[in-house]
Protein: Endoglucanase
Organism: Theobroma cacao
Amino acid sequence: MGTFARTYAAAVVAWLAVFQGHLVSVACHDSNYKDALTKSIIFLEAQRSGKLPPNHRPSWRGDSALDDGKEANVDLVGGYYDAGDNVKYGLPMAFTTTTLAWSAIAYKSHLQAAGELENVRAAIRWGTDYFLKAAARRDRLYVQVGDPVKDHECWVRPEKMKTPRTVLQINASAPGTEIAAETAAAMAASSMVFRGTDRAYARRLLNKAKLLFEFAKSHKGTYDGECPFYCSYSGYNDELLWAAAWLYHATFKSAYLHYIKEEAVSAVVDEFNWDLKYAGVQVLLSQFFFKGDQCLKSYKDQADSYICSVLPESPYFKIPMTPGGMIHLRDGANTQYVTGAAFLFTIYGDMLQKFNQKVQCGDKQFDSTHLLAFAKQQMDYILGKNPEGRSYMVGFGNNPPKQAHHRGASVPVSEANLEVGCPMSFVRWYNKDVPNPNELTGAILGGPDKQDHFTDLRWTSVYTEPCTYVNSQAVAPLAKLTCPSIKP
Ligand SMILES: *[C@@H]1O[C@H](CO)[C@@H](O)[C@H](O)[C@H]1NC(C)=O
């Protein structure tokens, strides 16, 4: 993270059904949303660190950071760069993985019908393979590779970087409850994704998730090692609850439910992001309330409060919106709040439908239709239905951005092996008002300001920087929009 079509076809679902008494196959053919879904996953491939597999799609990327971990005599090759720079930050990487895993669980049929399930699984595994390395030793988790200050003084592609690959860890004497618990959540959720296809791998993930949760719970302390880039402002209670909820979902062990009911702390909030997970846990736990666990009613009430603050038709609506109708909480990767809301509204909307439930906001009631319509409107804004009439996803739709604030995308392949020092790198590849030579396909950029205005310049990073967790949260809403009539 840096320092900080208009002609939209109506949703068309084509059922490729050979109807001989039974349905043989279903394909989803809203080509616009399908295209956006495919591309949103391709962007995550462009963020991969380490040794790339042969089927890697962004052709301008190569192997990078193959010595990561060496400084500490451990193997930390792999994982994701978070945004436009070349640092691997544990907290947002884990959140990216958790939200992808939830998408793969909740929208498995949609992703399968769209032909994207394997790509999403591969994206999750790119995270969990790394976490298995980072958590190889008990009561220790490697949480960052790279020196953000030095990295930000250099504008070079990750394949060519020479800045220090400083390794940070948390352990019993230097705890970091947020990161340990978020990584536990990521591994527990991911274990559910791989259960059906790779049991041994799923078991390894779940075992590690349990240990990390115990570690997080028994060694409490806020971690500020990723500050000022990823400071936890909200503390660790949300991550502990989130991890417990995912572990309960993955195991149905009463100890986790007991923790959720007796020990965890919850709060009403009106946003969902890499730092603040309460709204997500509340939605997640609501399904167990709907299935009959009356003790979890307070989570359903809190999930409703979240919806009531965000849904514009609600009497308690209170979050900032642009005149053109996009959530705008703050400049700097603002689209994360847009996809974050679309993500929870989609999942909760489908859950309400499945259990025939509604949300009560004062004297007004909202059902699944309202929630899904809001999620669609937020995604449509990003994809082109906005006052500027342009797409905010690179390589998609009408007039997409050309100057993503992204090191790899801005260095031409023809100059990939050029030796350029850090100061000159900015002159050569950054300070030029020209399109990136490499298309950062599928990246949803930070997006417009609070007046719906957008500046497509590499150095306005608050508007043009992409982040993995903006895209990870777009996968579920786009999967839903691709195949609206598949029942969750
Ligand atoms: C625990 O982590 C701290 C901070 O990262 C580090 O300074 C310390 O050496 C670590 N302790 C052990 C036993 O490795």
Observations:
- The mean pLDDT is 93.
- The pocket of 2-acetamido-2-deoxy-beta-D-glucopyranose is lined by residues 168-169, 171, 173-174 (CB under 6 Å).
- Strands lie at 88-89, 140-145, 167-171, 359-361, 364-366.
- The first helix runs from residue 31 to 46.
